[in-house]
From TrEMBL:
Record-linked SUPFAM superfamilies: Sm-like ribonucleoproteins
Alphabetized UniProt keyword annotations: Membrane, Transmembrane, Transmembrane helix
Segments traversing the membrane: 16-42, 69-89, 95-116, 137-157, 163-180
Stated name of the protein: Mechanosensitive ion channel
Chief place where the protein resides: membrane
Domain spans labelled Mechanosensitive ion channel MscS: 186-250
Length: 409
């Protein structure tokens, strides 16, 4: 007993040994507190804070929070141990308090950032991607939390009030504005994009300036990630979506109708007034399509307003009826077959309608069927479809030219 007392007296009298043993005791206490938190705090967090009693996919999130809390507990333990142990040098106590303060601020900052990430994941899971992305707001929150943490760390290290540190920032505000100008611009752009809800996760956008066309997969503070139609990935600065022209195709998908707007050229010399010769040329032909054309012409020319109708007018009305009878054409939207201004290549006939097949494959198939039908039926109205002549369309006009042509072929 006397030897133990003498040893303790020697330790107290030797400041260096006492300080080293005190530091070891504080570190050991912090380690024990970390183990307790890591293995016992998880159940408390799950049952009383997160209200979860069974294992779910959210268990990983619970572990993330518990790990951060287990990093905070040792810091607090070491801090109070430095106050409990009597006789420590004042310089050592101040150093421990400063280190504990800095580490505590860093761990609280990381914990808040983890909670923000978990909030983002929970929001996306509950509301879905189509409700909008809050990732930009989460990143803004992280920047604010990190800025406050930096100010508190500087105040702790310099042993000054945070208010003094904040007031001194006014002198270097211009420098900070220059350094963080892109972040500030992205901040404003992200707020505008997110609040106006013009772009959401899953939207298909097209930006011709940078040759981007694809699905939005991520909306962050500085960039918006797009998976292009060829599966390449593009990252566009968020500010570009308030300074550059782009097209969002998602409202079209949601409307249930995708526009078809395409024209082809009719040879103007083939446009004539209707006569019985048109019906006579159809008589030898049989088939459902030809019979429909015959009946359509008979019905139209019998009406008073169609007395001076042309073969092109009959053709346009026939195509219009064809479009109205297709099940994949939206009847509550515009259906127009019209002429455009004549050109040197012929008279443009434009189809303007909306198909219920909004996805690319089905849309292109519908559009192809319509124009293939128009090309095939134009001849029954004695209309010529214009295309620029090729070498096969040029026929020789003299024996010499015929001989040259046969030789070349």
């Amino acid at each position: 007993m006397q030897s133990l007392t003498s040893m303790l007296d020697w330790i107290y009298s030797n400041k260096i040994v006492f300080s080293l043993l005190s530091i070891l005791l504080m570190l050991l206490s912090g380690f024990i507190a970390s183990i307790i938190c890591k293995y016992f705090l998880l159940g408390i967090v799950r049952q009383f804070i997160l209200h979860r009693n069974n294992n779910t996919d959210a268990q990983k999130k619970d572990i993330r929070i518990t790990e951060r809390l287990s990093h905070i507990a040792p810091v607090i333990t070491v801090y109070f141990m430095s106050l409990w142990i009597q006789g420590l040098p004042i310089g050592l106590v101040e150093a421990v308090h400063t280190i504990c303060g800095v580490v505590l601020i860093i761990n609280i900052m990381i914990l808040i950032n983890e909670i923000l990430d978990i909030t983002k994941d929970a929001y996306t899971k509950k509301h879905g991607a189509k409700s909008g992305s809050i990732k930009g707001y989460i990143q803004i929150g992280k920047i604010i939390v990190s800025s406050i943490a930096v100010i508190l760390i500087v105040a702790t290290l310099s042993n000054k009030s945070p208010i003094i540190i904040i007031s001194s920032l006014g002198a270097i505000a211009a420098v900070l504005m220059l350094v963080f100008q892109h972040t500030l611009i992205s901040l404003v752009a992200n707020i505008q994009v997110s609040s106006s809800n013009v772009i959401r996760l899953g939207d298909w956008i097209e930006m011709p300036v940078v040759n981007i066309s694809g699905e939005v997969t991520d909306i962050a503070l500085h960039t918006i990630t797009v998976r292009n139609w060829d599966n390449t990935i593009s990252q566009v600065p968020t500010k570009n979506f308030i300074t550059e022209t782009y097209t969002n195709w998602q409202p079209m998908f949601e409307s249930g109708g995708r526009r078809i707007k395409r024209s082809f050229f009719v040879d103007q010399s083939s446009i004539v007034f209707f006569s019985n010769d048109l019906l006579n040329t159809l008589q030898p032909h049989e088939g459902t399509i030809v019979n429909n054309i015959k009946q359509h012409i008979i019905d139209k020319v019998a009406l008073p307003q169609y007395k001076n109708i042309t073969n092109l007018g009959l053709y346009r009305s026939f195509v219009l009826d064809y479009l109205k009878n297709r099940e994949d054409i939206c009847k509550d939207m515009y259906i127009v077959v019209r002429q455009l201004s004549p050109t040197s290549e012929g008279l443009p006939i434009e189809i303007y309608c909306f198909t219920s097949n909004v996805f690319w494959n089905e849309y292109e198939e519908t559009q192809s069927e319509i124009f293939e039908f128009m090309y095939a039926t134009a001849a029954f109205f004695n209309l010529g479809i214009y295309q620029k002549p090729s070498g096969k369309d040029i026929k020789p006009t003299s024996p010499i030219e015929a001989k040259i042509s046969s030789h070349l072929n």
